[in-house]
Specification:
Layout: H1 3-6, E1 10-11, E2 14-15, H2 19-26, E3 36-39, H3 46-51, H4 53-71, E4 76-80, H5 93-103, E5 110-113, H6 133-143
Parallel strand pairs: 3-4, 4-5
Antiparallel strand pairs: 1-2
Helix pairs in contact: 4-5
C-alpha cells in the first residue's frame, strides 16, 4: 500500500480515526457505481461514544458524506446496531447502541436495523462476531 493511502483519512479540518477501514475497504471502490452502503461496525468506537457522545455521530456523518461526494452519488446508508455479546467486558456497548440510534437521524437517506437478538449464544465459539447474519441481512433488505 502506498504511503499516501496509509495516511490518516482526513476531511475538511477533521482528522477522522478510520484510516485503516477507509484505506482497506472503501478507497478501492471510489468511482464505482453503488446503490447503497451496509455498515456493520462500531465496537472499536465505543470509547469515543463514552468520552464524547456526539463525536462518533459527527465522524460517521462526515465519512458518509465524503464517500457520497467521492462517488458522485447520494447513495443510501444503512447501519447495523451492535449485537449482544457474552459478557459485559466491552464497557460502553450500551452507550454505543444509543449513539448509533441517535446518530442515524443526522445522515440523509439512512436507516438503522437492530441486531441485539442475533448476537452471541452460549453454543457459539466466538463471542465478538455473531454467527447469525442472515436475519440481519433480511432486515437490511426490508429497510432498503
Amino acid at each position: 500500500m502506498s504511503d499516501e493511502l496509509i495516511k490518516n483519512y482526513t476531511r475538511y479540518e477533521n482528522n477522522i480515526p478510520v484510516s485503516g477501514m477507509y484505506n482497506a475497504l472503501m478507497h478501492p471502490f471510489i468511482n464505482t457505481s453503488i446503490k447503497a452502503m451496509l455498515y456493520y461496525q462500531g465496537e472499536s468506537e465505543m470509547g469515543l461514544a463514552k468520552s464524547d457522545y456526539g463525536k462518533y455521530n459527527e465522524y460517521l456523518k462526515i465519512y458518509v458524506e465524503d464517500l457520497r461526494e467521492k462517488n458522485g452519488y447520494d447513495f443510501s446508508f444503512y447501519n447495523v446496531q451492535l449485537s449482544s455479546h457474552v459478557t459485559n467486558q466491552w464497557s460502553g456497548i450500551c452507550e454505543q447502541r444509543a449513539v448509533q440510534f441517535d446518530g442515524i437521524k443526522m445522515i440523509d437517506k439512512a436507516g438503522l436495523v437492530v441486531s441485539m437478538d442475533q448476537g452471541f449464544r452460549s453454543t457459539d465459539s466466538d463471542f465478538a462476531h455473531p454467527n447469525y447474519k442472515e436475519p440481519v441481512g433480511q432486515r437490511l433488505a426490508a429497510l432498503a
